[in-house]
Specification:
This protein is mostly helical. It has a single domain, classed as Rhomboid-like fold (Up-down Bundle). It is built from 8 helices and 4 strands; from the N terminus they run ααβαααβαββαα. The strands form 2 sheets. It has a two-stranded antiparallel sheet with strand order 1-2. Helix 4 (about 60-80) crosses helix 5, helix 5 crosses helix 6 (about 120-130) and helix 5 crosses helix 8.
Length: about 190
């Protein structure tokens, strides 16, 4: 059973409530309002850099994101405290959205569709977990073998790429969340925090 810390529990609740609202109130087009649109789109609004990470595209999407959040985030919240963890979570989520949007704007890498989900922040959490607790051994569900946290980050990234048959996964946002996490953790270490 998961031992959810207060902030992580609240983040899970917020994500589930938003997901239920997206589905139960679909006539209000909440998904379109909350998702991050391409900067080239007339539907783009700056607030979407924040709201996109609380909306999800389907049950599998929210399930795996919340499973990862409940699995790894409580340890980081317990280690850092609520305030520092919240700053980190929001910074990696927003940073992932900014990197994704900037790449689409300057390189035209996206199809101009929407991006949604907590995955950018989740990959930030995975990167932080691997950096803060690199030699902590974790047990994988499949195959059931122990693996050090520092290697798990790369395996999770690879699995996302390998299992994406649709081409709709925002891999750049995953990378963006992990990259922002790497920068934040490196900065905190250099400041002795």
């Amino acid at each position: 059973m998961f031992r959810l810390t207060p902030l992580v529990r609240n983040l899970v609740i917020i994500n589930v409530v938003v997901f239920l609202a997206q589905n139960l109130l679909s006539n209000l087009h909440l998904t379109e309002y909350l998702s991050l649109w391409s900067i080239h789109s007339p539907n783009f609004k700056p607030y979407q850099f924040f709201t996109y990470m609380f909306a999800h595209g389907g049950f599998g999407h929210i399930f795996f994101n919340m499973f990862a959040l409940a699995s790894f985030a409580p340890i980081l919240e317990g280690y850092w405290g609520e305030k520092k963890f919240l700053i980190f979570y929001l910074a990696t989520g927003i940073g992932a959205g900014v990197i994704y949007a900037a790449a689409n704007f300057f390189l035209g890498t996206g199809a101009g569709g929407i991006m949604l989900g907590a995955s950018g922040a989740i990959y930030g959490i995975l990167m932080a977990f691997g950096m803060v607790f690199p030699n902590l051994e974790l047990m994988l569900l499949f195959p059931p073998i122990p693996i050090k946290a520092k290697y798990m980050v790369f395996i999770m990234g690879f699995i996302t790429y390998a299992l994406d048959r649709s081409g709709t996964v925002a891999h750049l946002a995953h990378f963006g969340g992990a990259f922002v996490a790497f920068i934040i953790i490196s900065a905190w270490r250099s400041q002795g925090r």
